Amino acid sequence: MSTSTRIALVTGGAKGLGLEWCRQLGRQGYQVILTARSQAQAEEAADQLNEEGLKVVPHSVDVVDETQIAALAAWVAQTFGRLDLLVNNAGVNSATRAQGDPLLRAKNLTLEALDPEEVLFMLRVNAIAPILMAKHFRSLLTKGDAPVILHIGSWLGSIAVKKDGGNYSYAVSKSALNMLNRALAFDLQADGIIAVVVNPGWVQTSMGGSRAMFTPEQAVGQLINNVLQGITLADTGKFFNYDGTEHPW
Ligand SMILES: NC(=O)c1ccc[n+]([C@@H]2O[C@H](COP(=O)([O-])OP(=O)(O)OC[C@H]3O[C@@H](n4cnc5c(N)ncnc54)[C@H](OP(=O)(O)O)[C@@H]3O)[C@@H](O)[C@H]2O)c1
């Protein structure tokens, strides 16, 4: 392994789990590229982490806009020339998508109100965007040191675990992410890139709510210690739980 500073890029990095990924990776010595939809929010979050003594640069990207993804990849290529870790963290669920609008929430949640456009919206953000990120960052990751793509999935995307109705669009988007990553992992294996999906557990963020089981600090710490630090190319394509065990599909 080379001794140069490792470079990580995190999507949805201005708050919640994404901000905590940036903080903990920064503390591990990574040069972090903190991305958010809003350049102003990315800058504000990066400033906060730089004040904590970490090495963080901000950049905007909306992960459903492939033109913006391509522009970000070109900027990373010009600025750093490679990438070692991509954390595909950005995501939405029925509550964060609805932002308090009960009808919009129901369109993602209940059979009666189910709206195909909403299902497609959530598939775009939670399942397709991470694969588009991989498409555009593949060549930079190939130049990286022991490169890893970490997709933040969910136990709610596990078909084996689902024992209730509803929550259609989020559940299917995270299940789709599992299958898309399986295909991606085989495609990237020859380049030496490890690609895995991880379940962070139920976490106290705007998505998880205040009653959730883990703080972002605990959740990210567990994923770094139990998954990121131990995975090898033999693990590519797997779906991991926060405790480091394989999650049922
Ligand atoms: N919290 C939990 O209990 C839990 C459990 C399992 C999995 N997860 C997963 O963990 C990840 C992080 O969620 P969180 O709990 O930290 O939720 P959060 O606080 O709502 O954060 C979600 C992040 O994703 C960003 N985002 C949404 N759409 C985006 C887009 N089109 N382009 C770029 N960024 C976008 C948001 O940015 P804006 O501020 O611009 O909207 C925000 O930074 C998600 O993938 C989620 O599905 C969370």
Task: Explain the layout of strands and helices.
Elements: E1 7-10, H1 16-27, E2 31-36, H2 39-51, E3 55-60, H3 66-79, E4 85-88, H4 94-98, H5 102-109, H6 116-142, E5 148-152, H7 168-189, E6 194-199, H8 216-228, E7 239-241
Parallel strand pairs: 1-2, 1-4, 2-3, 4-5, 5-6, 6-7
Bound molecules: NADP nicotinamide-adenine-dinucleotide phosphate.
NADP nicotinamide-adenine-dinucleotide phosphate is lined by residues 11-12, 14-18, 36-38, 62-64, 89-93, 96, 125, 152, 154, 200, 202-203, 205-208, 212.
Structure notes:
- The protein has 249 residues and is of the alpha/beta class.
- Helix content is 46%, strand content 14%.
- It has helices at residues 16-27, 39-51, 66-79, 94-98, 102-109, 116-142, 168-189, 216-228; strands at 7-10, 31-36, 55-60, 85-88, 148-152, 194-199, 239-241.
- The protein has a seven-stranded parallel beta sheet with strand order 3-2-1-4-5-6-7, sandwiched between helices.
- The protein is globular, with a radius of gyration of 17 Å.
- It starts with 6 loop residues before the first strand and ends in an 8-residue tail after the last strand.
- The model has no long low-confidence stretch (mean pLDDT 97).
- The structure holds NADP nicotinamide-adenine-dinucleotide phosphate.
- NADP nicotinamide-adenine-dinucleotide phosphate binds at residues 11-12, 14-18, 36-38, 62-64, 89-93, 96, 125, 152, 154, 200, 202-203, 205-208, 212.
